Amino acid sequence: MQDLRVVIVGAGCFGLSTAYHLLTRGYTNVTVLDRSSVLPAPDASSNDINRVVRTSYSDKFYTELALEAIAKWKNRQFWADTYHESGVLVLGYAKDPSSGRAEDEGQRKGDEAAPEADLTYTDQSFLNDLEIGCNLVPLPDPASIRLALPPDVCTGTFGDDGASRPMKGYINRDCGWADAGQGIRILLSEVNRLGAKIHSGKPVSSIRQENGIATGISCLDGSVYDADLVIIAAGSWTPSAFPDLNLEGKGLATGQSVAMIQLTEEEAELYRDTPVILDFATGFYSFPPTAKNVLKLAIHGPGLIHKTNGGISTPRTILSEPDNGWAIPKESLRELRNGLRKVYPDLARKPFLSTRLCWYHDAPDGDWIIGRHPAAHNLVLATAGSGHAYKFLPVIGRLVADLIEDKLEPALLEKFSLNRLRGRPDPSRSGDTIELDLNQLCSLTDLDAPGGA
Fold first, then answer.
1. Do residues 133 and 199 share a domain?
2. Residues 224-264: pLDDT tens digits?
3. What separation in angstroms does the CA of 255 have from each of 85, 375, 389?
4. Domain limits at 162?
5. Domain shared by 266 and 400, yes or no
6. 345 Cβ partners below 8 Å, 6+ apart?
7. Crossing angle for the helix pair 60-73 and 121-131, nearest 10 degrees?
8. What is the pTM assigned to this prediction?
9. How far is it, in rounded angstroms, from Cα 145 to Cα 1?
10. Alpha-helical regions (H) of 180-276
């Protein structure tokens, strides 16, 4: 099989990791195509200043796979200083004393099939982290949460101000964040060194097929790449770029609202030792400052959809809309500032440096799609990262390579199958997607500090 002509569409997390794992298994004819003329693509979700690296999942499979990935991230000879073990502060609502049950963080009302129905996503994540031996610090109430943060940092109350739903959580000392853009650049360079042919500026027009077999890829510029195996790893562009794959109900492009704040050197030093904060009750999360003193915050939620291309949600980015492709809805801007105010109130008074819609390819249940397409046995999908694939960059391609070589465990074949029986919705977030209203996007002046301060 090693002499197969393999064509991978997409030079992001799934595409590059798959290329790397195939090349290290001895595959000698691997071609990677990407729509962007510059790599890493400036608007790809995998090309960012940071991404959370956590083992804290309610699904033990991801917990264990993340532990394996973190061990790889710590190889500085390969990844340099891409990974930063800052710790991750995982938050959720405390139990409602009137009912004796956990609040609805990470759950869906009426979901009788949910395992451990009396546990929140945070609760189950703690148990999974505990079982794999992570260094954990339980934080049972708002006071303990505040004490877990650096003493000189002004923090919110975390519900210890008479709120009906106070917070609880824990710190996982064995997790942190990765410089996402740097990780992609390193792997791109390594895939190139191992002999892959990488072609940028190659938006695809169609998958070539004959008699139920994928025979290659045709690009909009007229170029053709013949293949014995085609792997579609196009991320959030997959549904709109390949409408013939019939992904309706199986994968959806959603825009997630992100903002950045420029700190002064003094401010950055004050917040340098803060952990990643990940609140599964509200979806708000934030990072420690980067080396350039930029603090990023975002919302892990159902996201926004942008229907074009025959009603298919399609990413709207700085490449497709250079003038305001960076803009997020004004309401999202307010939500981000309110979330920051509850964590770091002093920073909520500062202007935002920039915003971005980070586009995910979401599966309804939050599991990835790694499987063969029913239209052709040699057409493989490696996509639907659902907002939590990047941390697995060192290892996720192994799953795709195992699938290609018919080595993937039966349980994982089913878990990641395109046509799997989907269970409950993604338990890490709840709510409904919202149509992106182009008339309600923020302007540059909206990024100013509240009240012009």
1. no
2. 999 999 999 999 999 999 999 999 999 999 999 999 999 99
3. 27, 29, 16
4. 87-174+252-362+435-452
5. no
6. 154, 155, 156
7. 60
8. 0.95
9. 53
10. 180-193, 238-241, 265-271
